[in-house]
Amino acid sequence: MALLTFGTPEVRRAHVAAMRLVSTVGESRAFEGPDAEIVESFAGLLGCGGCHGLAQSIDFSDLLGERPPWGDADEAIETIGALAPDLGDRLEAIHAGLLVALFADELDPDAIGMAKAMARGLGCNDEMVDRALEVASEGAVSAKADLFRRFLSERIDVDAAIIQRHMDRHDLASLTRPATIDRYHRLIAEAPVGSLGAEMRRFYGDASFDIPGSPGVPLPVEFLASHDIHHVLAGYGTSAQGEAYTAVFNAGNATAGIGWLTVVLLQWHQGIQLGVFPEGHSHLDPAVMADAARRGSQTTTDLYDAHWDWMSLLEKPLDEVRASMGVPEGGQVVDGGFWGP
């Protein structure tokens, strides 16, 4: 199930309730400011009549007012559990709450702690919350490495132990076979005008990036090149904000995308380095994020699938590729626009 975009009305209500609970840290602080805007934006997306299979709009106003919709945090957790009895739906609600904490301009340990308490209360041993909480505390080097390793392994379908060995050698790029590198470079170089591959050439030029697989590029082609294609298909640039909006698009598109969204929010929004690139501290627009999630949810191909054959699309016209995958119009980089930060 893609992040915050599908499920019964009851499950969607559980998501909004979890976001409200975390944003207010169990109603110990007011429901206002940027945190409230995030919850309200995603509530609008979740309750949109005619959107992603929902026949009628859902009224979440009882969860979005100034007055607390429950007596205390325990009652809120009990309410969420009743709305989402399935373990998978409960995990999605926990992830939704956690993301409210990570969307804050500064890392919010109190809100992350509330997400962890919610996970315990819902009977979930959620590793993602544990790792995020460790990252928020001092001495979190191992937690950062583990979070990055976990999601890189999931993204390219390579055993985490193998990822660890390459990380220990500072040699993640060698996970890609030379034949794969040669094929990608050839397809990019020879892609016809108007194709996805030709737009990728322009993308690398605008961003002043070396093509994945080139000497010195620190990540495998299977991960980095496909991620670059996500930028182009979704229409978000390479600034810190563009990285975050692309990750929100992924999270709306595929269940596995939520993992990368956590990494991206920590690295390019909170300014905590997790991977191999320099960190950044960016401010995000709740409306743009909600629109990115909406567009991702309406895209019919799982761009995060490790076995998606994205290389076969490089020679095809970009507009046809987007249409065949159901990518809605939008994004921030218009046709012919600048991809760089």
Report on the architecture of this protein.
With 341 residues, the chain is an all-alpha fold. It has two domains: 9-137; 151-325, no CATH class. The protein contains 16 helices and no strands. It has helices at residues 9-23, 33-46, 61-64, 73-83, 87-103, 109-121, 127-136, 141-156, 160-168, 178-190, 196-207, 221-234, 240-253, 257-269, 286-298, 318-325. Helix 7 packs antiparallel against helix 8.
- List low-confidence stretches: none
Number of domains: 2
Beta content comes to under 5%
The main pleated sheet reads as: none
| Secondary-structure element pattern, one letter each | HHHHHHHHHHHHHHHH
* Gross geometry: globular
Radius of gyration of CA atoms, rounded to a whole number:
20 Å
Q: With helices defined by DSSP (H or I, 4 residues minimum), what is the helix count?
A: 16
Number of strands: 0
Termini gap: 31 Å
Helix/strand/pairing category? mainly alpha
Fraction in helix: 55-70%
Averaged pLDDT: 86
List keywords for this structure.
341 residues; 16 helices; mainly alpha; 2 domains; 57% helix
